[in-house]
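> example.struct
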């Protein structure tokens, strides 16, 4: 089976490619545009293991400008992870980057796969499409994104839906909830917290630090994503992928202080626009359709991320 993965050099994309290549008779074509230049070294690091695998083929390419018909030749499944991430950076003139890469690029890719005989087109979305919700949020909850980033990802979902209705593209939508673990991007919260504690630097906390998240360990996230490959009855479905352990930002920092045996210096600042107070996934649908059973406790996942951070000397 030949599988195309967009965003293959990213945090989640690189882990997904590695997991897919552990399967029998699988070839992976990875695409990544290296759109954010500051992440280039991180992405090259993420690719190291993959590039040594003879069943992996990598293309550094912008989805909006490359010959997708050639890259899609013989492909049976597409995982579309490529996107500009980040809630706080999606405001103002920076939104053009999100519109181009999260909306326009998705539409171009959907146009390209119209002529393909795919068994699945798996679009990776985000809990940011839900906005502020009380308690566990199910897939039936009305999306009300709080940020331009969330809007851009929801627009991608709607594009997938209209292409499914009009052209029969076999769409599956997975909504990730706050993924963490080894190789997490340097701009993401846990990486910044670990680095701040280890280097005795102040850690900015947006708001009071009591906002909660449903944290999903990277390997649990990847197992759910791979399970969508062969799952039956998932075409046209939206499925939450979350963890089983909810915690506040301050609770996470307390765990890191315990694991690192150092105290954190916190600098409280104003709450950021687009940042919900709480995010908590109802994963019953994933359990039913994907046989999803997240296994890694939050503290254990943090320990793995600390080890990875030590190994890569924080600078990446």
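> example.seq
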């Amino acid at each position: 089976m030949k599988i195309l993965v967009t965003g293959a050099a990213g945090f989640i994309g690189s882990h997904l490619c590695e997991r897919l290549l552990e399967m029998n008779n699988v070839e992976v074509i990875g695409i990544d545009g290296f759109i954010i230049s500051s992440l280039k070294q991180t992405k090259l690091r993420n690719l190291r293991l993959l590039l040594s695998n003879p069943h992996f083929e990598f293309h550094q390419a912008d989805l909006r400008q490359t010959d997708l018909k050639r890259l899609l030749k013989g492909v049976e499944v597409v995982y579309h992870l490529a996107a500009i991430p980040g809630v706080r950076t999606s405001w103002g003139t920076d939104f053009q980057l999100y519109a181009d890469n999260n909306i326009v690029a998705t539409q171009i890719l959907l146009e390209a796969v119209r002529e393909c005989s795919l068994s699945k087109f798996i679009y990776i979305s985000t809990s940011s499409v839900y906005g502020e919700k009380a308690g566990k949020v199910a897939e039936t909850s009305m999306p009300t994104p709080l940020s331009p980033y969330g809007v851009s990802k929801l627009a991608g979902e709607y594009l997938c839906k209209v292409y499914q209705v009009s052209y029969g593209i076999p769409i599956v939508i997975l909504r990730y909830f706050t993924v963490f673990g080894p190789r997490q991007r340097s701009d993401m919260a846990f990486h910044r917290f670990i680095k701040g504690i280890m280097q005795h630097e102040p850690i900015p906390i947006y708001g009071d630090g009591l906002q909660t998240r449903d944290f999903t360990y990277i390997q649990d996230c990847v197992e759910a994503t791979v399970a969508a490959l062969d799952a039956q009855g998932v075409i046209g479905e939206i499925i939450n992928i979350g963890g089983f352990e909810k915690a506040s930002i301050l609770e996470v920092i307390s765990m890191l202080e315990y694991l690192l045996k150092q105290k954190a210096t916190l600098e409280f600042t104003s709450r950021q626009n687009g940042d919900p107070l709480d995010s908590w996934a109802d994963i019953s649908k994933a359990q039913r359709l994907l046989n999803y059973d997240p296994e890694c406790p939050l503290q254990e996942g943090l320990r793995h991320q600390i080890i990875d951070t030590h190994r890569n000397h924080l600078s990446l």
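> remarks
The first strand starts at residue 2 and ends at 6.
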